[in-house]
Amino acid sequence: MIENKLTCLKHLTLLLVEDDNELLENLKITFSLFFKNIITATNGVEALKIYETTSIDMIITDYVMPHLNGYEFCVEIRKKNKIIPIVIMSNYSEKNKLLNSIPLQLTDYLIKPIEYTVLLKTLLLMIERLEENSLIEEFLSDSICFNIITKKLTKDNTNIPITKSEIILLNTLLKYKNNIVTEDMFIHAFNVEKSDNSQSVKNHIYRLRKKIGLEIILNIKGVGYILRPINL
User: Fold this and answer.
1) pLDDT for 81-112, tens place per residue?
2) Does residue 150 register a pLDDT over 60?
3) How far is CA 163 from CA 110, 115, 153, 175, 211, in A?
4) What is the pLDDT of residue 32?
5) Of all residues in the chain, what percent carry a pLDDT higher than 70?
6) How far apart are CA 119 and CA 121, in angstroms?
7) Cβ-count burial of 20 within 10 angstroms (0-12 exposed, 13-18 middle, 19+ buried)?
């Protein structure tokens, strides 16, 4: 049962933040057993930039870090995303840290060194947080659904073929649902140069809109695009 639950992590991307390079590499090896992708950062500033330009499903971060500590980093994340699962790690338990972190709605608070059984419990809690907030499936309309785990798009339970580029676009739109996504934001998601891909982004958006409906992805002329799920 536990193993079945954990298999969904094989479809997800974890942002792992730790300023100790040796520990970061060791943690990356461990988490690679569970997650599809591990993206690492060594401080909060670097991690925040990664979050803003990459599709991230879960975050595990150290508390004590240079430039922007774990608490400050999580405060910035919560301004952008209220429900993404976040876990903070620390070398020891401090009452003040725990109390300060309550408003961040953390999934868990891990004490290093992390025991394997404790890690499994935390990962299951993170999956439960996804399920509680309906982050496994996103309904774009009464009939169209996107599964963020399997990356499958369906209409009336029938698969709609979707390309890797269209998945990136849809993930980006969902990340900023009901907010305008500019062309530059899509380009950052593709991690490519604007001069080479401005028209490419437009082409991908055009094809994706044809598949899910013009009324779901609105074109704000000269500004960008906005995802507006309908009839829900």
Assistant:
1) 888 999 999 887 665 676 677 778 888 888 88
2) yes
3) 37, 39, 10, 18, 11
4) 95
5) 91
6) 5
7) middle
Nearest to 174 by CA among 134, 114, 204: 134
Give the CB-side neighbour count of residue 211, counting CA atoms within 13 A: 24
Sole residue written with tokens 């003040």? 96
Distances (CA, A) of 150 to 9, 92, 145, 162: 10, 37, 12, 12
The tokens describing 210, both together, are 């044809």
The secondary structure of the chain as a DSSP string is -HHHHHGGGGG-EEEEE-S-HHHHHHHHHHHTTT-SEEEEESSHHHHHHHHHHS--SEEEEESS-SSS-HHHHHHHHHHH-SSS-EEEEESS--HHHHHHHGGGT-SEEEESSPPHHHHHHHHHHHHHHHHHTT-SEEESSSSEEEETTTTEEEETTEEE---HHHHHHHHHHHHTTTSEE-HHHHHHHHT--HHHHHHHHHHHHHHHHHHH-TTTEEEETTTEEEE-----
